[in-house]
Amino acid sequence: MAHILSPDVIARELTRRIVRGELLAGEKLRQDYIAAEFGVSHVPVREALLRLVAKGLAVSQPHRGVQVAPLDPLAQKELKLMRLALEPMTLLHSVPNLTPDQIREADELRHACDRADNIFDWEEYNRAFHAKIYEGCNMPRLAEIVDNLQDVAARYILIHYRNRWRPRIDADHHGIMASIRRRDAKAAAAILDRHLQRLNLAI
After folding, report:
1. C-beta neighbour count of 93 within 10 angstroms
2. End-of-domain residue from the set 68, 96, 111
3. End-of-domain residue from the set 68, 92, 121
């Protein structure tokens, strides 16, 4: 008998596989195969796939089912513009509300990024760092949109940097944390904007 596993858990694992390139663009996401792998009914799998479609990591086509989304230059451009518009604003509203524990945890994630010795660990720590510094924005809808953008962006970042990534100290992350500790939200947002501009030029 199939046991209950939440759609969130399934969606997170499928997201991880798409981001890392384990599931390729155009690859079919078969409900029956996924349900069998996770030992669940089709219901949580269907919900998980709907979440991937909503994120832009998958597409649903009549008579063809759900597939991993293609790598679309227009979608990539939209992603860049949305991140530039929303993430500095999110940080601007977050900084005044971050607790000492959240600041400490963000700094630990910054250190983890700097210590990462492979691109997959770095990407996970990097995404967690950004999520942590946005936690104080107290705007659930905005936070959800930004979280979705981070997931989709990670896919493009890994594709671009996979063969050229090297361990490094991220000066922008250091600058953002220094500004957060001073509760200087404008300075933190300005560094983040520059950080995203540089990343967008790269990808």
Report:
1. 16
2. 68
3. 68
Q: What is the pLDDT of residues 74-91, one digit of tens each?
A: 988 999 999 999 999 999
97 and 62 part of one domain? no
Locate 83 and state its tokens. Answer: 């991140």
Q: State pLDDT tens for residues 20-38.
A: 999 999 999 999 999 999 9
CA distance 17 to 27: 12
C-alpha dihedral, 64 to 152 to 114 to 168, nearest 10°: 90
Regarding pTM above 0.90, the answer is no
Domain count, the chain: 2
Helix (H) or strand (E) holding 30: none
* Residue range(s) defining the domain that contains residue 55: 7-68
3-state secondary structure of 117: coil
